[in-house]
Specification:
It is built from four helices and no strands. The chain is mainly α. Helix 2 packs antiparallel against helix 3 and helix 3 runs antiparallel to helix 4.
Length: 130
Amino acid sequence: METILLAQAAGALFGLLAVILGAFGAHALKKKLTPQQLQSFETGVKYQMYHAIVLLVLAFNLGFDSPLDRYIVNCFVWGTVLFSFSIYGLVLSDSNGKKLRFLGPVTPIGGLLLVIAWALLFYSFMASLL
């Protein structure tokens, strides 16, 4: 039950923040960021929104009766947090002249968790066919 709530709450929160951060990037940061920084920021927003939608779809479609379902949701949640929010931190700190370099390795870890989530979801679908 708590995994369903995690997927629903994280999906809704990620969607909400993606809209807010997307508007913030398009309006408030447009003059402050370089085109490359703005593109990176937008990448974080896009991936965050994509995975917000995925979490909401999963929350209403997965049975959440196996540990695999929990692994999928947790990988999507933590992957999104690490991937998108590390990009925001890198871009905003770089624009202020004090780049938080320790966030550099965090982004690919988040990306890897997202890849694992998608692979587990694929496996889940394939296993149900057999």
